[in-house]
Specification:
The structure holds two protein chains of two kinds. Chain A is an all-alpha fold. Chain A has one domain. Chain A has eight helices and two strands. By secondary structure, chain B is mainly alpha-helical. Classes of the chains: A mainly alpha, B mainly alpha.
Chain lengths: ~200, ~200
C-alpha cells in the first residue's frame, strides 16, 4: 500500500508533469482563463490518461517494441474520442469554448510520455496509481492557475463573485498574453527554488 | 464578398489575428524549446510549414470523401487524422536525414516530435470545425504555418540578443522566453481590429 501512495505522491509533487517536467503546456495556458474550463479539461485529461495507461499496461507484453508508439497513439486517440463525445453530451456550453484543446489531448506530451516511461514497463495496478497521481498533479496546477487568473481578471472564482463589485477587473489576466506571463513567473520561481535546493546539497 | 477576398481574410486571420502560437498556444513545446538556436528555428519552421500544408490537404480529402459520406466523422476523425500526420512526419524525417544530415542533427529530438506537435493536428481540426472547402483549408494551413514561422523567428531573434544582456537570476532560461512571448502576444492582439 505504501508503494502505491508513493507512486501517487510522485505525480503530485516530485515529478509533477506540468511544473517540473514542463511539458504539455499548450492546454495549460489555453484553458486556464476560467475555473470551469480548467475543471472540464482536467476531467477529460484524467479520464484519457488513466484509461490509456491501464490498457497499455495490460497489453504491454503483446505490443512489439518497434511499433509501440503508433499503438500508444491509437489507444490514446480512442479514449480522447470517448472523452470528447462525453463532454459534448453533458457539458456542451463549456465544451464549445475549449473544444479544440479537448481534441488535442491526443497529442499531449504528458500522456504519451507516461505511456512510454511508465505504463509500458509496469504492471496494471501500478500504472493505475501512476495515472491517478499524474492526473491529480496536472489538475491541481491548472486549477490553481485558473483560480488566480479568473480572480484577478474577472473578480470571480468558477462564476461566484469573490471580490466586491467595486473591484475593477484587470481584463488582461483572462486574455491570452497573461497566460504566458503567469507561466513565465511560475517557471522562474520553480527553477530558482530548484537551484537553491541543489546549492544547499 | 468575393471568393478571393474571403481567402485573403482567412490568410490574414490565421497568420496575424489568431496567430496560432501566440494567441492559440499551439506548438508551444518546439516554440520554447528550439528558439535558443536560430538555425534550428528556421529548419523547424520549414519542416512544420511543409507538413502542415500537406497534412491539411490530405486530411481534408479523408474528411470529405470518406468520413462524412459514411457518417464516421464523430468517431474516427481523431484516430485517422493522427495516423495520417504520423506517417507524413515519418516521410519528412527520412527525407531530411538523407538530404541534410547537419540539419537533422541540429533538430535533434524535435523532429520526431513534430508528430505530436499540436499545431499540425490543431490546424486540421480548425479546418474541419469551420467547414472550409479544399482551397480555404490549404490557405488556412499556409497562414497558420507562416504565423508559427514568424513567431519562431521573432522569439529566436530576441533570445539571441538576450544572450549578451544581464538578466536577473529569476528570469534566466525558459522563464524569460515565456515573458517575452506574453509581450509579443500583447502586440499581436493589436491586429484584432483588422477583421470584423
Amino acid at each position: 500500500m505504501k508503494k502505491y501512495l508513493k507512486i501517487i505522491w510522485n505525480g503530485i509533487s516530485p515529478s509533477n508533469p506540468v511544473l517540473i517536467l514542463a511539458i504539455g503546456l499548450c492546454s495549460v495556458i489555453a484553458v486556464t482563463n476560467s475555473v470551469k474550463n480548467a475543471l472540464l479539461m482536467s476531467f477529460a485529461f484524467s479520464f484519457v490518461l488513466i484509461a490509456s495507461e491501464i490498457i497499455i499496461s495490460a497489453l504491454r507484453k503483446a505490443i512489439p517494441n518497434e511499433i509501440r508508439v503508433p499503438i500508444f497513439v491509437v489507444v490514446i486517440a480512442t479514449f480522447t474520442t470517448i472523452a470528447a463525445l462525453l463532454a459534448r453530451a453533458y457539458f456542451s456550453s463549456i465544451y464549445e469554448a475549449i473544444k479544440l484543446y479537448i481534441l488535442l489531448v491526443v497529442v499531449n506530451c504528458i500522456i504519451i510520455g507516461r505511456a512510454e516511461a511508465f505504463a509500458y514497463k509496469n504492471p496494471v495496478i501500478d500504472s493505475l496509481f501512476d495515472g491517478i497521481g499524474m492526473s491529480i498533479g496536472y489538475s491541481w496546477v491548472i486549477l490553481a492557475i485558473a483560480a488566480v487568473r479568473e480572480l484577478f481578471g474577472n473578480g470571480t472564482i468558477a462564476g461566484l463573485q469573490v471580490f466586491p463589485s467595486a473591484y475593477k477587473p484587470a481584463l488582461v489576466m483572462i486574455l491570452p498574453p497573461a497566460g504566458f506571463l503567469v507561466i513565465g513567473v511560475l517557471v522562474g520561481w520553480l527553477e530558482t527554488t530548484l537551484k537553491k535546493k541543489e546549492a544547499k546539497k | 464578398m468575393s471568393y478571393l477576398a474571403n481567402l485573403a481574410k482567412i490568410f490574414v486571420a490565421s497568420a496575424f489575428v489568431n496567430n496560432i502560437v501566440l494567441l492559440q498556444f499551439l506548438g508551444l513545446c518546439s516554440y520554447i524549446g528550439l528558439t535558443d538556436n536560430m538555425d534550428a528555428s528556421i529548419g523547424m519552421g520549414y519542416a512544420v510549414t511543409f507538413v502542415t500544408v500537406v497534412a491539411a490537404a490530405v486530411t481534408w480529402i479523408i474528411d470529405h470523401w470518406i468520413l462524412i459520406p459514411y457518417h464516421l466523422q464523430p468517431f474516427l476523425q481523431i484516430v485517422s487524422f493522427i495516423l495520417v500526420i504520423g506517417s507524413l512526419v515519418g516521410l519528412v524525417e527520412i527525407y531530411i536525414k538523407k538530404m541534410s544530415p547537419n540539419l537533422y542533427k541540429s533538430m535533434g529530438i524535435y523532429l520526431p516530435l513534430i508528430a505530436t506537435n499540436c499545431l499540425i493536428l490543431g490546424v486540421t481540426f480548425i479546418n474541419s470545425m469551420h467547414n472550409f472547402d479544399f482551397i480555404e483549408s490549404t490557405v488556412e494551413a499556409i497562414g497558420s504555418a507562416l504565423g508559427y514561422f514568424m513567431a519562431m523567428l521573432i522569439l529566436a531573434g530576441i533570445r539571441e540578443r538576450l544572450r549578451n544582456s544581464e538578466l536577473p537570476d529569476f528570469f534566466k532560461g525558459k522563464a524569460i522566453a515565456f515573458m517575452i512571448s506574453g509581450i509579443v502576444a500583447l502586440a499581436f492582439m493589436g491586429f484584432q481590429g483588422m477583421i470584423k
